């Protein structure tokens, strides 16, 4: 029973192969590009596989995404249609996202970018901001990560609202759903956090139309997927003052090209897809447990719904 492992960087693939081999004694764990008998492969553990990678294995039973999202797997036009996909989620990933969202919401709330500019200019500039209950934060996407982030923000005292495709109930959070709900959700969101899954219906949702429905001078945090954002629309909204600042952790092309305008824009903070980055030790344990459960029962708690895209 062979498990094929693939990540875009060879050294990371080797790291994961070694980790999983130690956690799954008796299993055959190998780098995808080292597989000599494709028919022996029953499981694949991948991050951003190349088009056609999964179609190489005629007896593939399950694909494991090294991460909570499965859009990078579904992007393969040759993906075998009936092979189930397992997401990698867990308390560590949720905690990391809670930390990231809280950090950057507080940065924008207390206008730290302006404070840092003042320091660079030797300017004793006291910035007065409203207390958290008088600041409205909106979270788009109320799945595991989004719900946890919204509850964290509410716990800090922010007036917190959330929007999702289907109705959700979260203590301390005012929730909205559907197209009509989005229209009601946006106008009060002074800081907007995107944690939506990337699907056909959410691609490009962070666009000029949406920015125009936010309060003037709102801030945007995107820690979901680069495909949610229309880059030029954000730059235009920053230029007009409709958006004051943005924090971006995810991009259409990663690593972000060195000549991209986001790197040097004074109102944009760039982080290198680290909001909820999984490490091999944590991820390996989660993936090994899911593979064992799937091998024994044909399912596990973290099965994704490919039809929904998450």
Characterise the protein shown here.
The chain is α/β, with parallel strands linked by helices and 310 residues long. 32% of the residues lie in helices and 17% in strands. Strands 8-7-6-9-10-11-12 form a seven-stranded parallel β-sheet, sandwiched between helices. Strands 2-1-3-4-5 form a five-stranded parallel β-sheet, with helices on one face. Helix 5 links the parallel strand 6 (136-140) and strand 7. It is elongated and about 65 Å long. The mean pLDDT is 96.
List the helices and strands and how they pair.
Elements: E1 2-6, H1 10-23, E2 28-31, E3 41-46, E4 62-65, H2 71-74, E5 85-86, H3 91-109, H4 112-120, E6 136-140, H5 144-155, E7 159-164, E8 174-177, H6 178-185, E9 191-194, H7 208-213, E10 218-222, H8 231-240, E11 243-248, E12 268-270, H9 280-297
Parallel strand pairs: 1-2, 1-3, 3-4, 4-5, 6-7, 6-9, 7-8, 9-10, 10-11, 11-12
Helix pairs in contact: 1-9, 3-5
In short, what is this structure?
This protein is 32% helix and 17% strand. By secondary structure, the protein is of the alpha/beta class.
* Count of β-strands: 12
Structural class, judged by helices and strands? alpha/beta
- What would you call the shape? elongated
The value of Rg in angstroms is 21 Å
- Topology as H/E string? EHEEEHEHHEHEEHEHEHEEH
Strand order of the largest sheet: 8-7-6-9-10-11-12
Query: Main β-sheet, in a few words?
Result: 7 strands, parallel
Total of helices: 9
Q: Mean pLDDT across all residues, rounded? A: 96
Strand residue percentage: 15-25%
The low-confidence runs, each spanning 5 or more residues with pLDDT under 50, are: none
- Percentage of helical residues? 25-40%
């Amino acid at each position: 029973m062979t498990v094929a492992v693939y990540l875009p960087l060879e050294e990371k693939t080797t790291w994961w192969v070694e980790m999983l081999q130690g956690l799954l004694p008796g299993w055959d764990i190998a780098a995808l590009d080292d597989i000599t008998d494709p028919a022996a492969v029953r499981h694949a553990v991948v991050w951003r596989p190349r088009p056609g990678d999964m179609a190489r294995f005629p007896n593939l039973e399950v694909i494991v995404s090294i991460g909570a999202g499965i859009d990078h797997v579904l992007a393969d036009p040759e993906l075998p249609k009936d092979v189930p996909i397992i997401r990698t989620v867990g308390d560590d990933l949720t905690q990391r996202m809670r930390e990231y969202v809280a950090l950057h919401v507080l940065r924008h709330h207390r206008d730290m970018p302006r404070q840092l500019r003042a320091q660079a200019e030797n300017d004793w500039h006291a910035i007065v901001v409203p207390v958290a209950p008088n600041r409205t934060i909106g979270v788009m996407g109320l799945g595991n990560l989004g719900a946890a982030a919204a509850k964290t923000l509410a716990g800090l005292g922010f007036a917190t609202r959330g929007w999702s495709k289907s109705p959700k109930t979260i203590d301390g959070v005012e929730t909205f759903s559907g197209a009509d709900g989005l229209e009601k959700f946006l106008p009060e969101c002074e800081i907007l956090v995107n944690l939506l899954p990337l699907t056909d219906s959410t691609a490009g949702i962070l666009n000029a139309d949406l920015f125009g429905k936010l309060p003037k001078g709102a801030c945007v945090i995107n820690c979901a997927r680069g495909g949610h954002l229309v880059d030029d629309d954000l730059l235009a909204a920053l230029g007009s003052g409709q958006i004051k600042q943005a924090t971006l952790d995810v991009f259409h092309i990663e690593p972000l090209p060195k000549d991209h305008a986001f790197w040097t824009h004074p109102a944009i903070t760039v982080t290198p897809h680290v909001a909820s980055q999984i490490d091999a030790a944590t991820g390996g344990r989660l993936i090994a447990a899911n593979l064992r459960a799937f091998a024994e029962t044909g399912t596990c708690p973290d099965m994704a719904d490919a039809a929904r895209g998450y």
